[in-house]
Amino acid sequence: GGYMFDRREKSLYNGEEIIPLTQREKKVMDTLCANVGHVTSIEQIETAVWSDHPAGYAALRSLLFRLRLNLPEGMINNTSGSGYKIHQ
Predict the structure, then answer these.
(1) What is the model's pTM?
(2) Within the chain, what is the greatest distance between any pair of CA atoms?
(3) Is the separation of the CB atoms in 67 and 77 below 8 Å?
(4) pLDDT per residue over 23-77, tens digit each?
């Protein structure tokens, strides 16, 4: 759908347009994109985003909600409470 996340630069593109993300949103995208097509556990994402003090599932859900607003519907899916999966 024209979306691309540059893991080196930590930038999300829709075609030529850069979509602004917070530092935490970039960490989530980087973690999910490292495992494209596979489930990334909630714990893996929390560790990547809040390495020193996990903020909890509610904070993660809020972060993912905001991130999903910048992506096509269905690109990031929850897999039965075990984690999240991003599709190409």
Answers:
(1) 0.90
(2) 36
(3) no
(4) 999 999 999 999 998 999 999 999 999 988 878 889 999 999 999 999 999 999 9
Alpha carbon distance 43, 83 (integer Å): 8
Number of alpha carbons in the 13 Å side-chain half-sphere of residue 9: 9
C-alpha distances out from residue 20 to 6, 10, 64, 78, 84, Å: 13, 10, 15, 23, 21
Give me the DSSP letters along the chain.
--EEEETTTTEEEETTEEEP--HHHHHHHHHHHTTTTS-EEHHHHHHHHSSSS---HHHHHHHHHHHHTTS-TTSEEEETTTEEEE--
Selection from 47, 23, 50, 25 nearest residue 83 by Cα: 47
